[in-house]
Amino acid sequence: MKLTPELISRSETSLNTLKDRQLDLRGHKIPAIENLGVTRDQNDTIDLTDNDIRTLTNFPNLFRLHTLILSNNLVNRIDKRLANSLPNLNTLVLTNNALAELSALTHLGRFPKLEFLTLMGNPVTRKQHYREFVVWRCKSLRVLDFQRVKQAERARAKSLMETEDGRPTSLAVSLSESLAGKDGGIATNGVGEKPSSGRTGTFEVGSVGVNGGGSAGRRMTADERKALEEAIENSTSLEEIKRLEDRLRLGYTI
């Protein structure tokens, strides 16, 4: 069943036990997210349990939403832009889905307020270094799979996944490599290792393409724009992201 405006309008909206306004969209075998703009951002919680959703994508801007429940779906991919649409998401429940690789969880680190995350029942939870990787990516996380994230665990995850100068370790890069070919990442840079001069196949700030140089003041080609978007995607420093986004917005090589 498609998630139509009619289905949304006739679905129950009520106050849950936490006194949050909750939209109940459970059990309709919905295959994809669409038309949620008709909710006019009036819900604190949306429950999409027991559907057939495969990709977390296509959400409108829902600034009020802080809890999203998607237990018992088929989710195997999370859109890298999702955090832009749901900037205040605090709780994400993805119990019993199809997330299989740690790289599929990389974009969870983009949610600035995500504190409660449940991934039990996904194949990815059986991967080595699962908790360390998720804790390292999600800086604001307080509880993962109903277990509190302690400072000692966070420190251990950081030491395993990050070098002393703030770059991803080779382990962190290898755990994220499968994302590179599927979702716009750069395989040689993994989850955001800053490029160094002389490395082939990487994008350097100030260069024009993935491998080449260019003249200042020239409008970017499609390939150059794509390379810049990939560099933004794989940056871990906020300063670096802002600088690259400024370049992308201008649309010129400098």
TrEMBL record:
GO terms for biological process: mRNA splicing, via spliceosome. GO terms for molecular function: U2 snRNA binding. Its main location: nucleus. Keywords: Leucine-rich repeat, Nucleus, Repeat. It is found in: Nucleus. Residues 184-218 are annotated as: Disordered. PANTHER family: U2 SMALL NUCLEAR RIBONUCLEOPROTEIN A. This is U2 small nuclear ribonucleoprotein A'. It comes from Meira miltonrushii.
